[in-house]
Design brief:
heterodimer, A: mainly alpha, two-stranded antiparallel ribbon, 19 helices, about 5% strand, disordered N terminus, B: about 350 residues, alpha+beta, 4-stranded antiparallel β-sheet, 7 helices, about 30% helix, extended
Chain lengths: ~575, ~350
């Protein structure tokens, strides 16, 4: 759809397509009036970049989850009624187990394609959550959450949390030894809630653990409640995406005011539609060749048994790690016992972590006081403190995750499990600080390198020797487009601290607040490397005529050795 | 939402940029398939080949469903699972790859520019909306009649109560159930799998036995289990124990528990006091047991005290004795609650 077509083409009504589709379109439009909306959507433009498809992976694996999950519900029995197994998996024949476990065995061994659907379902659940995380990181590190997209960020965080709950509920349904151990952990977690813990435990489990209610209840949560919330929030997420129009990377012709890319019909319909099949096909192949959650190997749940190396699914690993690393703080006051050793890492931390993530856009807005709309993405290096904070959070998460696998690490690498635990206990605090400092330095270094390239071009790899023996590397100037691409980011301004008192020595009202703001503003922007000015670039261009700068032959320089290394070094 | 058709703007009609001018969209370069009809036909053939392959593989899937036996294996995999998954997966991939190739090689690849509009509505719309809200509120008298307003808000607020009250039957109240287990005075300690009683003399030093209260294996006159199904699981989740024999000189029994063992045979709750995993990783030399879930470590020779990890309370100990036949029995229930802590755990009845 471009101006390459001459405006004198025949009206669409008179074309072959128009004659055929005109009738049905008219019929439908006269009843739902959707042509007005569809007009804005059919040729809507989406920009192209590989990182924009991460969210798509999450969306498509959610669809795969709905499809495979529906299949599983046809046979799964969400009941804790104890029965004797008489199915075709002989090692468990005649054993007592819950109907939930027995029907999962049936799906795995007696329903053709059942095992495949179970494995597809489990793999796409893993992929769903992994894709959401990576998508979230992409949005975070490129600043795509800035105004006007803060609410969509919050919706995304809610989707993330719901995804974790959904995954955990589903993982608990088969009632095998591993999932039962997970529920036992949830039981301990609920008990740890101050004052009301015991009551909540009895309400959730319908009595004493394990009771016979928890699986039917989790089933309802897993197939109805959370999926409905997820669907609603995904719809809102997508609607806002369409309304805001997708962000794009800055570049030649791409500005805050436009979107450059391909139209939904046909290119994105084909690409995105095709990508759905790729994601589905990929999970189907995983279901075919990668075994996951072999519940028949764990056996039915028995509250007096556990296997060594019990691990939750990967996305619960950071909570598991926090619980393992926590010191054993528990105290009793006024007759009430507070199990902080469980409550802090399993309940508070999870809540605090996602609240902090959800609040980030508003925190940054408070620092930057930036009230403009942003549709151009930022390279992570151009927001060094944000990037460093993000990597610090990732480090925090990563250390907890390692802590969650301390037993596996200990056995695989023959290390002392207590030493690993202590290492993680320290690193969970120290690691993020180190990560912050290193990341910020790297960002600033990259910013300097960008500036250098804009002004002096890139290193061509060609070494020249001058008549007096000096060596220099020829620098090749960047193309105009290359220079433009490295200078599209905005200049930042650090808020100046206000004077504490005016000329007459009267204290300025609000000065304290402004000083605090100036402080965080400096923290955020103080070290940012400013991009070159127009004059800098012009001057550098003028200089570029005289080739790259030469390595000065200083007084100590005594020629070059046999190996070609200058002797003064 | 935009109702404007995307328009191709003149190339350099863009915002002034700093420090360098925006060079504008680069010129569109034709792909090989745009200029070479042979390449175009080749791409066409490739893409339809992918779609054809997908059809074929889908048929393979259907045949495999009926032909491959459920118990056959292939390279260690279930042959049925493998053939179904591989054919379906590859068929889906072929459709996906074909569609994406179609978009990339043959569909028009001129980039289109669409202009953005401010997200916010116009000032006029906003003012009108505010005005209408104001009119509506005024006409309702919501602000003018505080009695009606407040009584309505009160009524709606109270409606939250039934929603909570209705959940009352989700479960029974805990009462004192968390404080006791099925252990009683004189109940035999039996092995957890076979239910056989344990003879004190048969236990070796360094041995650990996973055990249960005998009631879990008892049957009534009609041969029915006394505890069955959920009830049995609930009993088990509190009453499971471990029995160890430690050289008596290695044991430091806490005050008052000196005679809770039988010749160095001690019995502890198997349920971790942290979040309730069953503990059983036993180290003979140090008499430590490690919980495999979160690595709380307890010293069985020292009253089950915690020596590492997130668990706080020592493992509760079950006082032991032997009956006239020499089998291990409990002399009472646990004297403290077993399993993970709960808010009322320190409250005396």
């Amino acid at each position: 759809m471009s101006d390459t077509k001459t405006p004198t083409h025949t009206p669409v009504e008179q074309t072959k397509f128009g004659k055929r589709a005109g009738g049905p379109v008219k019929w439908l439009d006269e009843r739902v009036g959707a042509a007005g909306v569809a007009r804005g959507l059919i040729r809507k433009v989406f920009p192209d970049h590989w990182s924009f498809m991460l969210g798509e992976i999450a969306l498509y694996s959610f669809i795969v989850l709905l499809l495979s999950g529906t299949f599983l519900t046809f046979w799964f029995q969400p009941s804790m009624q104890e029965i004797t197994y008489t199915g075709s998996y002989t090692p468990l024949y005649g054993l007592e187990m819950s109907q939930a476990y027995a029907s999962t065995l049936d799906i795995s061994f007696d329903i053709r394609g059942g095992l495949l659907m179970r494995q597809i379902h489990h793999w796409s659940a893993m992929l769903f959550i992994a894709a959401m995380y990576v998508h979230m990181l992409r949005v975070f590190f490129t600043g795509a959450f800035r105004k006007p997209r803060e609410l969509n960020w919050v919706i995304g965080v809610l989707l993330m949390v719901l995804g974790l709950i959904e995954g955990f509920a589903g993982y608990s349904l088969p009632d095998d030894l591993l999932s039962g151990t997970g529920l036992r952990f949830v039981d301990g977690l609920i008990r740890s809630i101050p004052i009301v813990g015991s009551y909540l435990e009895y309400f959730v489990f319908g009595g004493e653990f394990p009771g016979n209610e928890i699986i039917p209840r989790l089933y309802m949560v897993h197939i109805l409640l959370v999926p409905a919330l997820l669907l609603g929030l995904i719809a809102a997420h997508m609607l806002l995406l369409v309304y805001h129009k997708h962000t794009q990377w800055p570049g030649p012709g791409r500005t805050e005011k436009n979107v450059v890319g391909y139209p939904v019909l046909p290119v994105y319909a084909a690409k995105a539609g095709g990508f759905f099949f790729v994601v589905f096909g990929f999970t189907a192949l995983m279901g075919a060749v990668l075994q996951i959650n072999p519940i028949w190997a764990y056996g039915p749940y028995n509250p007096s048994e556990v296997t060594a190396g019990s691990q939750p699914d990967w996305y619960m690993g950071f909570v598991e790690g926090a619980v393992r690393l926590m010191p054993n703080w528990e105290f009793t006051t006024l007759g009430w016992t507070f199990s902080l050793n469980v409550f802090i890492p399993a309940v508070l931390l999870l809540g605090a972590f996602f609240t902090a993530i959800g609040a980030y856009p508003f925190i940054e807005r408070w620092v930057t006081k930036d009230d403009r709309e942003h549709h151009l993405l930022q390279r992570p290096r151009n927001a060094p403190v944000r990037t460093a904070l993000g990597v610090a959070a990732m480090t925090f998460y990563g250390v907890l995750w390692i802590g969650g696998g301390n037993d596996i690490i200990a056995t695989q690498f023959r290390l002392d499990i207590y030493a690993i635990t202590w290492f993680c206990r320290v690193m969970v605090f120290v690691g993020p600080v180190i990560a912050f400092i290193i990341t910020k330095r790297i960002c600033l270094g990259l910013q300097r390198a960008d500036k250098e390239q804009v002004l002096h071009g890139y290193e061509s790899g060609v070494i020249e020797r001058s008549p007096d023996g000096g060596y220099s590397e020829r620098h090749t100037p960047l193309s105009e487009v290359g220079q433009y691409e490295l200078t599209t980011h905005e200049r930042v301004e650090v808020a100046a601290p206000p004077p504490a008192a005016d000329d007459r020595g009267v204290r300025v009202s609000g000065a304290r607040k402004a000083r605090r703001h100036a402080f965080v503003s400096k923290f955020y922007y103080g070290d940012v490397v400013d991009k070159p000015s127009r004059d800098d670039v012009d001057e550098a261009r003028h200089h570029a005529g005289h080739d790259g700068h030469e390595l000065e032959a200083d007084e100590e320089f005594r020629g070059v050795g046999e190996t070609g290394v200058p002797r003064s070094h | 939402m935009s109702s404007e058709l995307p328009v191709q703007r003149p190339r350099n009609d863009i915002e002034p940029a700093e420090p360098l001018d925006n060079p504008g969209l680069p010129e569109h370069l034709p792909r090989p398939t745009d200029v070479d009809p042979a390449m175009e036909r080749r791409a066409e053939r490739q893409i339809s080949a992918f779609f054809g392959l997908a059809t074929l593989l889908t048929l393979v899937f259907c045949v495999a469903y009926f032909v491959v036996p459920k118990d056959a294996t292939f390279l260690g995999w279930s042959a049925l699972n493998f053939s179904l998954g591989a054919s379906l997966g590859l068929a889906l991939l072929a459709i996906g790859i074909g569609a994406i190739q179609w978009a990339k090689k043959l569909m028009d690849d001129h980039e289109v520019i669409e202009m953005r509009h401010p997200v916010a509505s116009s000032e006029e719309d906003r003012a009108a909306t505010l005005g209408m809200l104001n009119d509506g509120i005024k006409e309702s008298g919501f602000g003018r009649r505080p009695m009606i307003r407040n009584s309505l808000l009160g009524a709606l607020g109270v409606l939250g109560l039934p929603a909570v009250v209705l959940l009352g039957d989700l479960g029974p109240l805990p009462g004192r159930t968390q404080f006791s287990t099925v252990w009683t005075k004189g109940m035999r300690v039996v092995t957890d799998v076979s239910g056989l009683p344990i003879k004190a003399a048969d236990l070796e030093v360094g041995e650990l036995v996973n055990a249960e209260p005998a009631i879990l294996f008892e049957t009534d006159e009609e041969g029915e289990r006394v505890l069955e199904g959920t009830e049995a699981l609930q009993a088990k989740s509190k009453a499971a124990v471990i029995v160890v024999r430690i050289r008596p000189e290695d044991i430091t029994a806490p005050a008052g528990r000196e005679n809770w063992g039988v010749d160095g045979i001690l019995c502890y709750s198997k349920i971790c006091t942290h979040v309730g995993c069953p503990i059983s990783l036993y180290e003979q030399q140090t008499h430590h047991v490690l919980c495999p879930c979160h690595q709380s470590t307890f010293d069985l020779s020292d009253g089950g005290s915690v020596i590492f990890g997130p668990g706080k309370r020592p493992l509760p100990q079950l006082p032991l004795s032997v009956d006239e036949e020499g089998y291990l029995i409990a002399t009472s229930d646990f004297t403290e609650p077993v399993g993970p802590s709960f808010p009322e755990i320190e409250q005396e009845s």
